[in-house]
Amino acid sequence: MIAFKSATVRLPATALALLLAACTGAAQAAPYVMFRDTGCGCCHKWAEHVRTGLKAEVVMREDIPMAQVKADRDVPADLMSCHTMEVEGYVIEGHVPAADIQRLLDERPKGVKGLAVAGMPLGSPGMEMGGHTQPYQVIAFGDFGQEVFASYD
Question: Which of these, 140, 38, 129, lies nearest to 93 by C-alpha position?
């Protein structure tokens, strides 16, 4: 039963379930917001990786200085990279693989504010350079500090 001011609307259980599912689907379909500098080229490649890997809409914003974006989201200085994304309340900094973002969203580990790949390592998503690669780590960060979330060789 749903109450509206002076009227009460009775919905069958299936209708209520469909309404709740639609609301849940709308929340899940919320776009991922990526902040970037206008001159950065790898950001488009990484956004495409996220679109494909997570089947998500990525909205790009270039209207806030990146230093402010990172400061407002408490990105640790040693983990900063070229772009910052907001995903379901988490901060994703740099070239984090879509599979690690999905794992974060599935597991929702306590105390984690976000994931980061510091710098721009060759071979990370969006930084593919003719087969050249560098080892890198995906770091989970939060009030607890930092810990390795995933490693790539």
Answer: 140
Question: What is d(CA 98, CA 75) in angstroms, rounded to the nearest whole number?
Answer: 19
145-150 average pLDDT score: 98
Class of domain 30-152: alpha beta
Its pTM stands at 0.80
Give all strands (DSSP E) within 37-74, no chain letters. 58-61
Residues 6+ apart with CB under 8 A from 85: 32, 33, 34, 35, 50, 58, 91, 92, 93
Secondary structure (DSSP) of 24-47:
HHHHHTPPEEEEE-TT-SHHHHHH
